[in-house]
TrEMBL record:
Official protein name in the record: NAD(P)H dehydrogenase (Quinone)
Gene3D superfamilies: NAD(P)-binding Rossmann-like Domain, UDP-galactose 4-epimerase, domain 1
Organism: Mucilaginibacter gossypii
PANTHER family per record: NMRA-LIKE DOMAIN-CONTAINING PROTEIN, QUINONE OXIDOREDUCTASE 2
Residue ranges constituting the NmrA-like domain according to the UniProt record: 2-246
InterPro entries given in the database record: NAD(P)-bd_dom_sf (IPR036291), NmrA-like (IPR008030), NmrA-type_oxidoreductase (IPR052718)
């Protein structure tokens, strides 16, 4: 019986992918979840899913986790050492005869000129490592989550407006559950071997568009201010934003402004065999409007 190993199984994307696999008729005993903490994975064992405990840093646990596995879903990590962690997964997958790795990366035009490096660069170095080690792969380059727009626009954007140095830059936001559904389909279908997909929501939105959507939904006038990118970090410091978050927000905004994420692709729609969820409906949900 072929088995699928899901890393990050207790995270948002991993958990949702497992749910879609079950909906698509994959039996629970064909799914193996890789998690750090068994207490966070009890809901999986209750479904009849085997949980193998370990971490990306622990090669012994990865060795055990990848035994008897046909396909690995490598959900990209968040650790500062994640490139080496991803290499560990690839190494042990190859050692144990895994037939394919499905890796979730990021949809960006030119990582070499990204101002958010090395955050973005790790994804492409992971892809390169997997392909150069003669592992069959599917690379899912995910656009920014539509349901995370609140993190960038701000929790209180309806009252205070949106303050970001993104200019007229646009993003084809994708709903996380749509990405999870597409991931489950790729894991269970033939024909995705050694393919790279740009999984975007299709339609492009600037943060001016986001402000206009919030205005329409709330009945209030929500403004967008194109902040000065040179002074933006100092403004964030005044509000007590931690330095790592400042670096991420500044780099993200700079890349948006320069059109790094404005990738036109219908890969997500083709895999889903339907239109992805639109940004307005997601914003309505995340802002409880």
């Amino acid at each position: 019986m072929s088995k699928i190993l899901i890393t990050g199984a207790t995270g948002h994307l991993g958990k949702a992918t497992i749910e879609f696999l079950l909906r698509q008729g994959v039996h629970a005993d064909q799914i193996v979840a890789f998690a750090r903490d068994i207490s966070k994975a009890t809901y999986l064992t209750e479904k009849g899913i085997e949980v193998r405990i370990g971490s990306f840093d622990d090669r012994d646990s990865l060795d055990k986790a990848t035994q008897g596995i046909e396909t690995v879903l490598l959900v990209s990590g968040l650790d500062k050492n994640r490139l080496e962690q991803h290499k560990n997964v690839a190494d042990l997958s190859k050692k144990n005869g895994v037939k394919r790795i499905v890796y979730t990366g990021v949809a960006i035009k030119d990582v070499d000129t990204s101002l958010n490096n090395p955050t973005m660069e790790d994804h492409f170095k992971t892809e390169e490592y997997i392909s150069k080690n003669n592992l069959t792969y599917t690379f899912l380059r995910n656009s920014f989550y539509a349901d995370a727009v609140k993190l960038f626009a701000g929790e209180h954007a309806i009252d205070s407006g949106i303050f970001l140095p993104t200019g007229d830059g646009k993003i084809p936001f994708a709903f996380r559950l749509d990405l999870a559904e597409a991931t489950a389909k790729v894991l269970t279908q033939n024909g995705h071997e050694n393919k790279t997909y740009e999984l975007t929501g299709g339609a492009m939105y600037s943060f001016t568009d986001v402000a206009n959507i919030l205005s329409d939904l709330s009945g209030k006038t929500v403004t967008y201010t194109d902040a000065d990118e040179k002074t933006y970090p100092d403004t964030l410091r005044l509000y007590g934003v931690p330095e790592p978050a400042i670096a991420i927000l500044s780099g993200f905004s700079a890349d948006v402004k320069r059109g790094q994420f404005a990738i036109e692709s219908n890969d997500l729609e083709r895999i889903l065999e339907r239109k992805p969820r639109d940004l307005k409906s997601v914003i309505k949900e995340v802002y409880s409007l």
